[in-house]
Specification:
Structural class of chain B: alpha+beta
Strand content of chain B: 15-25%
Number of helices of chain B: 22
Strand order of the largest sheet of chain B: 10-9-24-23-22
Strand order of the largest sheet of chain A: 1-2
Oligomer: heterodimer
């Protein structure tokens, strides 16, 4: 009873409600988007391969989210260093395990007990926590290039480097963007940031264009279909699906594009299926839900008393909305194709888990402030 | 807002404004894609996600006079593929080669030559394809279609004809009435997936196919069998190179049976020479010889130029007319008019013809329909040869009277004899009794049609009496059937080869009808180049008439000596429903890998869905057109009705899952 009491009174229930709403919409849309592909893959035996897996992960994710909620988030400061080292070790382990197995496919997942974990997801959360810890502890050093700024940039560079060689360029770029944004908010000098930004662009752009398929995607984006039909097929199908939906959509379950026209209707392009079935109303509603959750995150940061809480809340919120918006931008053909999922909606291994844990942390920060306001300090007191 | 937060506030506001800006930007982009350009994308989307699939119409069947089927439609399997989508061409070629016995090179060439839809094997029976169906290789498309099957093989094959692999009539009735038989195929627009498979849910329009019309012929299958069997038998006995025969009803002109040998099997037309495909009863003309003498006799009677008891001196077998010597096969002295016919004296008939005069003889030939087509509803009819009177030489009148210098088709001869039998009316030959649409309504009938009255019935009665004596005591005694009166005439024609009459190659023929008092069947039989000795019409061809008449009398009680005019033979009702054997073919679901090819039509048998998942069972049953009730969950444990039960489309099927 007390546990429920704690949730209802102290945590930001708007945020919790928003997350639950997104999870519900996500699950329904995931089922709708994945049933055709599931039938095809199971030779018409079952429509629920992906739904079942998603629900399993959702349950585990929710468990982790509530677990994260009951510990004081400030404890993360103490373990942030180990989290970072651990996630770097996981990144290395991923690459090595693929290398040993002689597997040439992108080394992005580590298989633990039947679950595939995308190690870059863990690294991203660890980086957010570590940067927040660093700025909290060395508030003034961040303005110093050698003693503060450069250290964080190095850590960022190492992590990104390990992800780039997986290869997973877009995830690395996301981590770079989030880290950069946190440094910017944390008070780093604009001159440092611009200089580093310029240098990293000089390094990253050639790396990006090294792989022919990335070059292809960029060319396709700028020059349209003439650059290569293969690459533009996804975007063409995505736009067809979106346009097919119109203002009100074809109705739940009536998408035509999910029937093996869109190559990945349940993961990267689920937003297009939402557009087809629920129309412009659905897509704008989803985007607004993202903005709403982001706004709750900012509000939690505003009301947080300590620097760590503020930066962590900002980092997590920014991470969340960045993924959502980049995915929507890919689906609408605004940016070149990347394989980034839409949080809580796309089907995808550990992404859902990490997102739920992040939201758990955010909720945790929200209750800390409320505990303070209620003058009872940090005390969920679940142990009696 | 905490004091701590204020330190970061300005930079956070910058980030927030960026986010809000992108929010608005993305929303505008979505509005652009979904609403402004929506119509364009919607058109593309529906275009790619729907496909019009044909629903082939079932070809109409051909029936005989008694509604016995002469054709059937059976299910055949065709295997096709899109070679561009086949990953391992070698593997597929080897596999097909294992199953069908052709070399794998054959399939490989087909796979490599073509890019688009290609048939690898067509029109295989269920038996031939069932092993492959159980173990269908990836990328292979199965089509089920109905194909023509001719249950009677060689029987009436020249008449019925055959179709090409696309069910398009190529010869015979199949060609003649192709437009009626084909029907019009329908279509259904189905939602398809990106892989091109049709999806079970369907919100799109469709048009039902209209099955082809059934054609009912005047042919009697039993008679046809008798005719063909007796022709075979006689051809074997006489070593003739070919033979023709026809049976018609003289009262209506309806053709009861027609055949020429050698024949062929409509199921395997390519295995036989194209010559055998022809319906030679209509297409081939020949000089009939003495069977043609009835024309001169009829002309003489009609114009009352010869008294029945008048005697003619037959010059003891040798007579010179217009500078040419004419021989009889036996030497005759004085013969009466009927005796001339009875003994088939050439000299006698020439003397009579001389009295008739060429103009009247020619006129009578035309009256009996020689030298012009009979207008039967069958393509390729020959009109025979009858030179115009202006082209006749001095001897022509003699030649024509004994059946030379003219050529007739077997059909023409039969129609002329029918005119004798029915009292002087030349009928149009009928081949099609009626055409019936798929609702059982008759949309076309051929009614008996009198082309002209050749002469009055008294002339024909006298002629019939003479012809009866031919069979009773004259040259045609081999056609005699005790207890029955048969009228007929024999013909022995030397074949006209390279400008002169051959002394070794003959056409032996016999034309006649019975019962003479009440003629119900006219038969004409022609043997081409029988062994010497059988070359006489009375020896070679006459026994065919005897045998055919005997069998028909034994088989058909409606053939009676005395006809009660007002007691009509009861005709059996036409079987209209488009029964085909496919109904017996056990339906097997092919959905796992094969494309959905219209299966709704044929499979009225309840498939076995036990052991399937609910979705799959629903798929299978819906495809066939059943409504489904189910209970429980898991796999199908029981079903009602049981597998193999015949069901009407749209009926409800209950399945239980466990």
């Amino acid at each position: 009873m007390k546990y429920i009491d704690v949730i209802t009174k102290k945590y930001d229930h708007y945020l919790l409600g928003g997350v639950v709403l997104l999870c519900v919409i996500g699950t329904v849309m995931l089922f709708s988007a994945s049933n055709s592909i599931s039938l095809d893959q199971s030779q018409r035996a079952t429509a629920t391969i992906y739904l079942q897996a998603h629900l399993k992960r959702l349950l585990i994710g929710i468990f982790f989210m509530f677990t994260v909620m009951i510990f004081d988030y400030r404890n993360l400061k103490n373990i942030s260093k180990y989290l970072l080292i651990g996630s770097i070790a996981l990144l290395l382990a991923t690459k090595i395990s693929y290398w040993i197995q002689g597997n040439n496919s992108p080394a992005r997942w580590l298989y633990i007990g039947g679950f595939s974990i995308q190690t870059s997801d863990i690294a991203r959360l660890s980086i957010i926590i570590y940067i927040a810890t660093f700025i909290d502890q060395y508030r003034e050093k961040i303005k110093d290039f050698y003693n503060g700024f450069a250290i964080l940039i190095c850590i960022l560079a190492i992590t990104m480097g390990l992800i780039v060689i997986q290869p997973d360029f877009s995830s690395a770029a996301m981590i770079g963007l989030i880290g950069f944004m946190m440094l910017f908010i944390g008070g780093a000098k604009i001159s440092h940031l611009t200089a580093t930004g310029a240098v990293s662009l000089l390094v990253l752009v050639p790396i990006m264009l090294m792989k022919p398929y990335r070059l292809q995607r960029v060319l396709t984006f700028f020059y349209g279909e003439s650059a290569g039909i293969q690459e533009s097929y996804q975007i063409k199908q995505s736009l067809i699906s979106l346009g097919n939906g119109g203002f009100l959509g074809l109705g739940l379950g009536n998408s035509l594009g999910k029937n093996l026209f869109l190559p990945t209707p349940h993961t990267d392009f689920i937003f297009a299926i939402i557009g087809e079935e629920l129309g412009l109303l659905g897509t704008v509603f989803i985007l607004s839900a993202f903005v709403f959750i982001f706004q709750r995150g900012i509000k939690i940061a505003k009301e947080s008393t300590d620097t760590f809480g503020i930066l962590l809340a900002i980092g997590i919120s920014f991470n969340f909305i960045l993924y959502g918006f980049i995915n929507a931008a890919v689906v609408t053909g605004v940016v070149p194709t990347t394989g980034l999922p839409m949080p809580f909606i796309s089907y995808g291994g550990s992404g859902l888990l990490i997102n739920l844990v992040s939201m758990g942390i955010l909720l945790n920060i929200s209750q800390a402030k409320r505990s303070l306001v209620h003058k009872s300090g940090w005390s969920p007191r679940v142990y009696g | 807002m905490t004091k701590n937060y204020l330190k970061f506030r300005s930079r956070i506001l910058l980030i927030i404004s960026l986010i809000l800006f992108s929010w608005i930007g993305l929303s505008i982009r979505l509005f652009q894609v979904q609403v402004i350009n929506g119509a364009k994308y919607r058109e593309l989307g529906f275009k790619q996600a729907q496909a019009q699939m044909p629903l082939p119409a079932v070809r109409g069947n051909i029936y005989d006079h008694n509604s016995k089927p002469l054709t059937r439609n059976i299910i055949k399997y065709s295997f096709a593929t899109y070679p561009a989508k086949v990953s391992s061409k070698n593997k597929l070629a080897n596999k097909l080669s294992d199953y069908f016995g052709r070399s794998s090179k054959y399939y490989k060439e087909k796979l490599e030559k073509n890019k688009n839809f290609t048939y690898l094997e067509r029109n295989l029976s269920k038996k031939e394809s069932e092993f492959l169906l159980e173990d269908l290789p990836e990328g292979l498309i199965v089509e089920r279609d109905s194909r023509r099957f001719y249950p009677n093989g060689n029987i009436a094959s020249q008449l019925i004809g055959y179709t090409d692999p696309d069910n398009f009539g190529l010869t015979g009735i199949e060609k003649q009435f192709n437009d009626y038989l084909t029907g019009s195929s329908g279509w259904v627009v189905r939602q398809i997936s990106g892989k091109g498979n049709a999806l079970p849910n369907n919100r799109f329009p469709s048009k039902a196919p209209i099955d082809g019309n059934n054609v009912q012929l005047t042919i009697d299958l039993d008679y046809q069998v008798v005719l063909q069997e007796e022709l075979y038998r006689r051809v074997n006995e006489t070593e003739a190179s070919s033979a023709m025969g026809i049976l018609i009803n003289p009262q209506t002109g309806a053709i009861l049976a027609m055949a020429s040998l050698p024949d062929f099997d409509s199921n395997y037309p390519s295995k036989y020479s194209m010559e055998f495909h022809k319906n030679r009863v209509l297409t081939d003309q020949f000089e009939p010889g003495s069977t043609f003498k009835f024309v001169a006799a009829a002309a003489a009677l009609k114009h009352q130029l010869v008294d029945l008891n008048e005697e003619f001196f037959c010059e003891n077998g040798q007579f010179t007319f217009a500078g040419e010597v004419v021989n009889d096969h036996e030497d005759y002295g004085l013969l009466t008019f009927p005796q001339i016919i009875e003994n088939s004296s050439n000299v006698g008939i020439i003397k009579i013809a001389d009295r008739i005069g060429r103009k009247r003889l020619y006129r009578t030939c035309r009256d009996f329909g020689f030298g012009m087509p009979t207008n039967i509803s069958f393509a390729g009819e020959s009109s025979g040869t009858l030179h115009h009177i202006t082209k006749w030489s001095g001897f022509s009148i003699a030649s024509v009277s004994m059946g030379q210098e003219i050529a007739v088709t077997t059909l023409q001869l039969a129609m002329a004899y029918a005119a004798i039998a029915n009292g002087g009316f030349l009928m149009k030959p009928l081949l099609v009794k009626q055409i019936i649409d798929n609702n059982g309504k008759s949309i076309y009938t051929e009614a008996p049609e009198v082309l002209r009255k050749v002469s009055d019935s008294k002339v024909m009665k006298d002629l019939t009496k003479m012809l009866t004596r031919v069979v009773e005591t004259g040259t045609g005694t081999n056609a005699y059937l005790p207890g029955w009166s048969i009228a007929g005439k024999t013909g022995t024609a030397e074949k006209f080869i390279d400008g002169e009459y051959s002394k070794t190659k003959y056409i032996s023929n016999f034309a006649g009808f019975f019962p003479a008092e009440n003629p119900q069947i006219v038969g004409v039989f022609v043997l081409n180049e029988p062994k010497y000795g059988f070359h006489w019409g009375g020896i070679g061809a006459a026994p065919i008439f005897h045998r055919v008449a005997k069998r028909i009398i034994n088989m058909d009680d409606s053939i009676q000596i005395l006809k009660d005019k007002y007691k009509k033979k009861k005709e059996p009702l036409m079987m209209v429903d488009n029964f085909n054997e496919s109904n017996k073919v056990q339906f097997k679901p092919l959905f796992a890998k094969a494309a959905y090819v219209n299966m709704n039509q044929y499979s009225n048998l309840m498939p076995d869905v036990r052991g399937m998942s609910l979705l799959k069972a629903k798929d299978v049953l819906r495809q066939i057109g059943y409504k489904i009730k189910f209970s429980g969950s898991g796999q199908v444990a029981w079903q009602s009705p049981k597998p193999g039960t015949g069901l009407i489309e749209g009926s409800v099927c209950t399945i239980g899952l466990q």
